[in-house]
Amino acid sequence: MDDIESAAEVRYTGEKGLEDALRGADALFVYDFLSTAVPRAWHAADRMRWVHIASAGVDPVMFPELRESDVVLTNSRGVFDDSIAEYVLGVVIAFAKDLPRSLELQRQVRWQHRETERVGGKRALVVGTGPIGRAIARMLRATGMSVAGMGRRAREADPDFGSVHASAELTRWLPEFDYVVAVAPLTGQTKNMFDAPAFAAMKPGARFVNVGRGELVVTADLIAALRGGELAGAALDVFDTEPLPPDSPLWSMENVLISPHMSGDFVGWRNTLVEVFAENFRRWHTGRPLRNVVDKQLGYVPSGQ
């Protein structure tokens, strides 16, 4: 932040001081991207022109007053793409090669030979065709998996997905895939898209991976599908309530892999997020176009931005 401090008055604050800090401020850097404080303090933003959030998801700041204003919103798209793709590849291999069971048997000092699955030849549907979804598709394809995407509009000959299916036809396409990876942004259209009918439509033996937003999933329906055998397993990095409550049945399910919203958090990611903001600040300060401008009606950065 040194270069920014030399060019502007910088006010550092937590949630309690946000209202005072917003008065007279031209720009806001939401470094704590999980905070819900901005909507409550927004009435004090009397000259705000630009808000930047240190995440790819922008739902914490998509409240009506900001959405309907002329304030430009940018995000940190691009920072976590490859790291999240590596996480997805890791859990796919962990499922296929039964690694959680191997670790459990190791702790029990038990030698139990088993046969495992091949990854090559399996089919994956990546729901969300932004940069993170594309990185996931490229990484899974490198293992010999067949990958398709799902987005707002259907199309063919996509460079990363090949075929992209329309999200309105989710239940039609789910039976075709061994792995379903949720990485869609949270919008009015995607909230609760993975519900009981969606899980019931999945191929027997399919696994579900969520690295998008917890609210994409109806958690009770997911638990019921796992208990009922409609799903062979789930790898979950995000949840509708975080931290995941200690009494959640998901903790004790043998076919569930849980991580605490960390799939993209590589060593050094915090500094990288500040660097992204600093580069955009230099653009803003010199009148150049900002990067990663969010379409506030869509809730994400459109392709090509």
Polypeptide structure, described:
The chain is an alpha/beta fold. The protein has two domains: 96 residues, Rossmann fold (3-Layer(aba) Sandwich), CATH 3.40.50.720; 178 residues, NAD(P)-binding Rossmann-like Domain (Rossmann fold), CATH 3.40.50. It is 30% helix and 15% strand. It is built from eleven helices and eleven strands. Strand 9, helix 10 and strand 10 form a beta-alpha-beta unit. Helix 5 packs across helix 7. It is globular, with a radius of gyration of 21 Å. The model has no long low-confidence stretch (mean pLDDT 97). GO terms for molecular function: NAD binding; oxidoreductase activity, acting on the CH-OH group of donors, NAD or NADP as acceptor.
Brief overview:
The chain has helices at 2-7, 18-22, 37-41, 64-67, 81-96, 99-107, 131-141, 170-173, 196-201, 219-227, 269-285, and strands spanning 27-30, 50-53, 72-74, 123-127, 146-151, 155-158, 162-166, 179-182, 207-210, 233-236, 256-258. The chain is of the alpha/beta class and 305 residues long.
Distance between the termini: 25 Å
Low-confidence stretches: none
Number of domains: 2
Which strand order does the major sheet show?
6-7-5-4-8-9-10-11
Per the CATH scheme, the topology name of the largest domain is Rossmann fold
pLDDT averaged over residues: 97
Q: What is the CATH class designation of the largest domain? A: Alpha Beta
Total of helices: 11
* Helix percent band: 25-40%
CATH architecture of the largest domain: 3-Layer(aba) Sandwich
The H-level CATH homologous superfamily of the largest domain, spelled out, is NAD(P)-binding Rossmann-like Domain
Number of strands: 11
